[in-house]
Amino acid sequence: MNELALKGHNNPPDMTITANEAAKDLSDWMAENPVIETHDAARDAKNQIDRAKICLKELDDERDGKVRPLNEKVREINLYYKSPRSVLERVSEELANRFGGFLRAEELRRIEAANAARRIAEENEYKAREAERVEQEALRNAAAGELGIDTKAVVVEANDAFRDHERSQRAAELADRETKVKIRGIFGRASSLRDKETLTIIDPLLVMATTGANEEIIKQLKSLAKAYRKLHNRLPDGVEATIEREI
Q1: What is the pLDDT of residue 3?
Q2: Position 146 pLDDT exceeds 90
Q3: Residue 147 confidence (pLDDT)
Q4: pLDDT of the residue at 56
Q5: Residue 167 falls within a domain, yes or no?
Q6: 164 Cβ contact list (under 8 Å, min separation 6)
Q7: Cα angle at 135 between 130 and 139, to 5 degrees?
Q8: Which domain holds residue 164?
Q9: Are 235 and 229 in contact (CB under 8 A)?
Q10: Count of domains for the chain
Q11: What is the Cα–Cα distance from 189 to 139, expressed in whole angstroms?
């Protein structure tokens, strides 16, 4: 037994004790009356159910009396902090939107720079391949006895073209690596743009036909069906109502 309930002397008993006692009374009654077969037994069962309902109400009233002051205090505390929090959230969100705008613009600028660097690398690669072809052709012609070929000049030109190609290739690779913008702050991880997936349901019926309807979807559909009946005084197609008689 709850010792706190015994210390109040004239105080009413703790409703949890009363509820437990009521539950035992109902259990004992059902043990003695496993099947309700007579009108008198049904009336007695009704009295038992009514007493249980009264006990449940008193149990909730007692709980509410203890919880209500706490809930009111919690509401006061929440209201106290709500306004400054809301203002800070709105101002912070506006700054975050501007910060995101900078990140998107900067990322676009870097992507364009990377594309330009890649085009330069491709052009220098073509020039290097062409200079190499000219070099090899000049060397073959010189070896075949052709006069007036400046072997040193064609070799130097090919080497310079190849070095230009290597430099531009490294610059293009670096530009590709730096397309993602990261900004570090005073704490936490660096901020950067990330892919955010947004799903759009184009054909709800096709989705349900593919995935099947779970309990949550069925619950939402029932709610929609009831709302539809309020507007049109009938259930929508595909919904069937059954009536069961109960107390």
Answers
A1: 44
A2: no
A3: 79
A4: 96
A5: yes
A6: 124, 127, 128
A7: 150
A8: 7-177
A9: yes
A10: 1
A11: 58
